[in-house]
Amino acid sequence: RNGIYPLMNFAVSRPHALPRVLSQPPEDPQKAKTPTPEPFDVETRKVVQMQCSMELNEDRTQWHLTLLLVLEDRLHRQLSYDLLPSDNSKDLATELVHYGFIHEDDCEKLAAFLESTFHKHRS
User: Fold this and answer.
1) Distances in whole angstroms, Cα of residue 65 to Cα of each of 9, 20, 79, 111, 114
2) Residue 74 region, left (φ>0) first, then alpha (ψ -120 to 50), else beta?
3) Which parts of this chain are annotated as the region Disordered (predicted)?
4) Would you say the C-alpha torsion 59, 96, 79, 119 has a positive or negative sign?
5) Residue 56 carries which DSSP code?
């Protein structure tokens, strides 16, 4: 008779009204100007397999990097990036650690892997 959700037949009681506060003190303007940046998660899983491909864009002026990482728990993480002429492998690997994409112990290994890929395609 009441269907599969019998608790929905009861009337919902209205919440009691809360007393209103006249005004709140203004915040310190110094605190409002300098927000704390949100911390990034730290990757705890290590990389067990890496694959990398580089292709020239249609206008053939910039390289596009696609990186496939397989982590310890078999999670696949695919990242892509348009390389700038000033980019180097060490900085890219350090950025991936900073933003929580790879474990910090994998930074040197990934930097060496990217360096070998850069030499193969840019030469």
Assistant:
1) 58, 56, 8, 14, 10
2) left
3) 18-43
4) positive
5) E
Q: Does domain 47-122 have CATH number 3.10.20.90?
A: yes
Element holding 97 (H helix, E strand): helix 89-98
Domain boundaries, the chain: 47-122
Q: Are 49 and 39 in contact (CB under 8 A)?
A: no
Going from the first residue of the chain to its last (123 residues), give the mean pLDDT of each consecutive group of 10, the final group possibly shorter.
53 56 57 62 95 92 95 96 93 95 97 96 78
| Nearest Cα residue to 70 out of 45, 97, 49, 51 | 49
pLDDT at site 32: 55
Q: What is the pTM of this model?
A: 0.67
Q: Determine the Cα–Cα distance for residues 7 and 57; give it in Å rounded to an integer.
A: 60
- Return the SS3 of 66: strand
Closest CA to 68 of 47, 52, 48, 46: 52
The token pair at 120 is 């193969």
